[in-house]
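User: I've been trying to design a sequence by hand for this structure and keep getting stuck. Would you show me what you'd pick, starting by listing the structure so we're on the same page?

Assistant: Good idea, let's start from the same input. This is the structure you sent:
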């Protein structure tokens, strides 16, 4: 009996280690590379993994830390650069988390588009349209879409971008969380 239990424990440990290695080599290593290959990303720490570490249809982009020198644009750029590194992959959804707590989600197709468009899309367009592609965890839109005159629309889109960052991590970061 004791031998069977030892074999079972070893098998569980090996399976767990294999899951961690899989997450690291397919996701976290690229997140680390994004942070280290662009000096503007210094201070931003992201933990990326599959949903519950085993669901390859869900990506978790978990912002763990940032420095006082980082801006919301730096965080967004890190997300976009990571999307570019994952453009060969397809996810059903991408969870935006802060310190282990899920806050928002992106549709997988939109994340794929972000990755494909990173090198040639106007970054201002990407920034201002990002919030209208962000969803609450229940699947409802987190922010609206705007119509009307260009200046008014851009102003509202940028307000939404700031609100997205506040709700994702800035409010907690500002209080020491």
């Amino acid at each position: 009996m004791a031998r069977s239990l030892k074999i079972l424990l070893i098998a569980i440990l090996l399976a767990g280690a294999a899951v961690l290695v899989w997450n690291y080599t397919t996701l976290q290593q690229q997140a680390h590379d994004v942070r280290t290959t662009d000096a503007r990303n210094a201070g931003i720490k992201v933990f990326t993994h599959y949903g519950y570490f085993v669901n390859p249809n869900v990506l978790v982009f978990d912002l763990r830390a940032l420095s006082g020198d980082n801006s919301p644009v730096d965080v967004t750029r890190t997300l976009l650069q990571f999307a570019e590194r994952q453009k060969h992959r397809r996810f059903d959804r991408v969870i935006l988390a802060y310190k282990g707590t899920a806050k928002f989600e992106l549709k997988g197709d939109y994340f794929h588009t972000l990755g494909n468009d990173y090198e040639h899309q106007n970054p201002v367009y990407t920034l201002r349209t990002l919030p209208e592609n962000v969803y609450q965890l229940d699947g409802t839109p987190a922010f609206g879409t705007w119509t009307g005159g260009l200046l008014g629309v851009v102003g509202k889109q940028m307000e939404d971008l700031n609100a997205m960052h506040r709700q994702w991590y800035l409010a907690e970061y500002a209080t020491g969380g």
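That's my pick for every position. To get oriented when you compare it with your attempt: The two ends are 47 Å apart (CA to CA). The first strand starts at residue 45 and ends at 51.
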